Amino acid sequence: MAMKKRYIYSLLFGIPGFFVALIITFVIFGAVAGVLWIYVFGDNPWPSSISKMLLVILTLGFVTVWSASVIIGFVTGKKFENYPALNRKHILVSICATIIPIIVIVSHQLSVGNIGPKSDGIRCSDFCSRKGYSASGIPSQVSGDRSCSCFDNTGIEIIKVPIDSIASGPTGH
Predict the structure, then answer these.
(1) Which of 28, 73, 110, 136 has the lowest CB atom count within 10 Å?
(2) Angle in degrees, 0-180, between the axes of helices 5-35 and 48-79, rounded to the nearest 10
(3) CA 78 to CA 3: how far, in whole Å?
């Protein structure tokens, strides 16, 4: 006995819907947090209840968007149950609609340094933090100077080392 199309289409819509829901949810989360920061709280300490509220918004937004994609798939599949064959174009669209959001997510995470090689600025910051300094800085890329400066609490440069001499691992080894 073959699986009913309503369940197949729930998967065809639900799998890419998961990744689309992630993207939409984080965009909404960023927008809400941005509005709260710019117009409501600014740089002042935020109440702890706001963190909980943002988590609830994040969770509800994700569940809503993902559930909607599964429900739309279910309804669409139900309409196609009278047709004997599964439409290959629908499968291809589902595969593309799954791969594209994954590429968007991975590209974003690569660009912000969460995955892949760490940027010079992050390596410098990690190095100075490990050494106990308050701040770090690197010169502009156009200067050609590939160095890392560590600063004390008063903003005075204490040490300056070549970026290439800084290990990129978490322990500095």
Answers:
(1) 110
(2) 150
(3) 12
> Is a pLDDT exceeding 70 seen at residue 171?
no
Cα separation, 88 vs 120, in Å, equals 47
**pLDDT, tens only, 16-35:** 999 999 999 999 889 988 99
What does the alpha-carbon distance between residue 33 and residue 46 come to, in Å, rounded to a whole number? 11
pLDDT of residue 169: 52
112: Cβ–Cβ under 8 A, 6 or more apart, which residues? none
| SS3 state of residue 142 | helix
Q: Please list the alpha-helical segments (H only) found in the chain.
A: 5-35, 48-79, 88-111, 120-130
| Residue 164, phi then psi, degrees to nearest 5 | -65, -15
Rounded to a whole number of angstroms, the distance between the first and last alpha carbons of the chain is: 59
Is the pTM for the entire model greater than 0.90? no
